[in-house]
Amino acid sequence: MNDKIKVGITGEYSKKVVKEDLASSKGSGGTDVFSTPDLLLLMEAACFNIVEDLLSDNESTVGISANFSHLAATPLGMTVTAKAKLKEIDRKKLTFEVEVYDEKELIGKGEHQRFIIDKDKFTKKAYNKKNA
Fold it and tell me: Which class would CATH give 10-130?
């Protein structure tokens, strides 16, 4: 693991809410607001982006857990931004704190864990499982 991956590093990820991000488009709700599944995806993207460029070419991270709250509704067309901070490193397990804001307020917060993997070994293991 790269020694640049240290507790305290931060990053963010933003996107504009489009029709495909709405709860009504996902089947996760009946309203035209930013969906909870997409909130989680945004949080994961922020965490992934913090460390991905710091890993070797054959490493990546995969999400292993998330504990979060969706606090406020965000309408179509508004920009949402996830701000993440690496708060703990336990060998290859990385724990992040994440807050998500729209243009008006805090809309979500929580914790997300990712694990550093060897891409070749991980893919081979998944392929072997499929063909077992």
Answer: alpha beta
Predicted model pTM: 0.91
Rounded CA separation 56/51 (Å): 10
Low-confidence ranges of the chain (pLDDT < 70): 1, 130, 132
Q: Classify strands 10-16 and 79-90 as parallel, antiparallel or unpaired.
A: antiparallel
Instruction: Name the residues annotated as catalytic.
Output: 36, 44, 70
Alpha carbon distance 40, 53 (integer Å):
21
DSSP characters over the chain: --TT--TT-EEEEEEE--GGGBHHHHTS-SSSBB-HHHHHHHHHHHHHHHHHTTS-TTEEEEEEEEEEEE-S--BTT-EEEEEEEEEEEETTEEEEEEEEE-SSSEEEEEEEEEEEEEHHHHHHHHHHHHT-
